[in-house]
Each structure stands twice: as C-alpha cells, then as structure tokens.
Design a protein that fits this description.
Blueprint lengths: L2 H15 L3 E2 H8 L3 H17 L4 E6 L2 E6 L4 H8 L9 H13 L4 H8 L4 H9 L3 E6 L7 E5 L1 H6 L19 H12 L11
Helix pairs in contact: 1-3, 2-3, 5-7
C-alpha cells in the first residue's frame, strides 16, 4: 500500500470506529508494522496542527482514537447541548491517585492507604468510567482488583500511565504539588471530558 494511502486508511478506520482502535489491529488491516502505524499517526497529528484542523488523533496506551481538537470544546458543547460535569471531589481524586499509581489494587488496599471506607467513591469512579475491574486477587475471598481505564487517559490528556508525574519521595514536601492542589480546589470549572454528560 502506498504511503499516502496509509494515512487516508488510518483516518478512515479511526473515523469509522468512533472509538479507540488498537494499533495492532490497524497494522494487521493495512499489512504494515506497529511502528509504521505510530509514524503515520504522528505525521497525521502534525499535519492537523499545521493546518489548524478541528480534529486530531490521540494515543491511549496501545490504541489510537480520532477526536475533536480541545480548542473547539465550547462550540461543540453548545451545538450538542452538553452540560458541564461537576468536578471530582477531593476524596475521589485521592482514591483515583491511589489506584493510578499502584494499580491493580484492591478496595482494601485503597481503604488502608486512606484510612476510611471507599466503597461509594470506588462505585462513583467506576460509574464515571475512570476505573474498572481488572480481575481478582488470588487470595481467600478473591477480592476484585481495580485499575484505570482508557477514559482516564483521555480525561487527563495522557497517552500512557507512565506519563503521570512522579510521586514525591517519602517525607519530601512538594510545593508544586501543594500549589496544584490549591489551584485545583479553586477551579470549579475543570472538565473531565468534552463529551461526558
């Protein structure tokens, strides 16, 4: 397949899917390697930026998805009559951080870290699609394991869990982390996703 057709084919696949597509499936469909899919997707993203297009392609782990450019979120929200999400509570952010940095984890582990019952918060984060069940721990009672989702990556605008900022060392007080927390608590308009209801 000619190079120019690879770009067009990737666009067509991602547009038609409307959801994320594993790059291995794209590679198989086009008869190319995973690395060639990565290169073509990067080139498409660069082209979209250079042309100030209203769409872009994002990477979510080992998958790609076509999405609207973030700059046009207000106009999209108006046309689609999407309401703003309520921000995540401090408790939800804490549970999400524990899960994200230690996944897969059990509810008991999260509760041990936080020192309080987390059943309601875990249920809420699961309903929002930010965490999901990842199997069961091979211990008596076989407790559920939780981890983050593709939706989590999309909402926090990262491609992979490895892109999360490093945790401060034990006993180290991070001024930047405190400033970020203070800023986050003041900003009640923080959105998790353009398309969430």
């Amino acid at each position: 397949m000619e190079e120019i057709n690879i770009f067009a084919a990737i666009e067509a696949i991602l547009f038609s899917s409307g959801d994320s597509v594993e790059k291995s499936r794209i590679a198989q469909a086009l008869g190319i390697t995973d690395d060639q899919v990565d290169e073509a997707a990067d080139r498409l993203v660069d082209d979209y930026k250079a042309q100030n297009r209203g769409i872009t392609i994002i990477r979510l782990g080992t998958a790609y998805q076509m999405t609207a450019a973030k700059a046009y979120a207000p106009q999209i929200r108006t046309v689609m009559d999407l309401r703003r999400n309520t921000p995540l509570s401090q408790a939800a952010l804490e549970v999400l951080a524990v899960v994200a940095y230690n996944q897969p984890v059990t509810k008991a582990f999260v509760e041990q870290v936080r020192g309080v019952d987390c059943s309601g918060v875990i249920g809420s984060l699961t309903a929002k699609g930010l965490i999901e069940e990842k199997g069961r721990l091979e211990l008596p009672g076989r407790p559920l394991l939780y981890g983050t989702t593709e939706h989590f990556l999309r909402c926090f605008n990262i491609s992979d869990i490895d892109e999360l900022p490093p945790l401060p060392e034990d006993g180290e007080k991070s001024g930047d982390a405190q400033e970020a927390q203070d800023a986050g608590s003041k900003d009640e308009d923080v959105q998790m996703s353009v398309f969430d209801e």
